[in-house]
């Protein structure tokens, strides 16, 4: 039992990264991670010994995220993306890479949650299409479609941001 708990604890940084990609709000992401870990510990018998708990934990987290989104849509509540104190006080980045990374993260937050989840699972977390499709509970073709549309949407958003940045530089 202790080996299982240790293996689950090792996955917490990845779970946090995925939750932050889904929700953007640090507190909400931490709540999602905690809820996922609680559910995992209660249902530890469902995890097969000898396998990595990563797929299992990500599946739990994704299902909890979908449940939260359904609750929000039923209630008609708007989700608020609050700035952390460190984000609110941050100075603008001077490095091109930092600006580009920030723009990618911001653009990723603007696409639909289904497309964002598919992209994050495959492009960032490194799951195969088959694994991601299983964890998200969709056919592989649907996953590939979401990834293709998400990438297209990201390209459009990033091209638009690059144009706006170029205009700002010229105006100064």
TrEMBL record:
Gene3D superfamilies, per database record: 1.10.1740.10, Winged helix-like DNA-binding domain superfamily/Winged helix DNA-binding domain (1.10.10.10)
Keyword match Transcription regulation: yes
Transmembrane segments: none
Domain (PhyR sigma2): residue spans on this chain: 8-62
GO biological process: DNA-templated transcription initiation
Transcription regulation listed as a keyword: yes
Coiled-coil parts of chain: none
Residue intervals of the RNA polymerase sigma factor 70 region 4 type domain: 102-154
InterPro entries: PhyR_sigma2, RNA_pol_sigma-70-like, RNA_pol_sigma-70_dom, RNA_pol_sigma70_r4_t2, RNA_pol_sigma_r2, RNA_pol_sigma_r3/r4-like, WH-like_DNA-bd_sf
Key words of the record: Sigma factor, Transcription, Transcription regulation
Record GO terms (molecular function): DNA binding; sigma factor activity
Entry similarity comment: Belongs to the sigma-70 factor family. ECF subfamily.
Name under which the protein is recorded: RNA polymerase sigma-70 factor (ECF subfamily)
Species this chain originates from: Aminobacter carboxidus
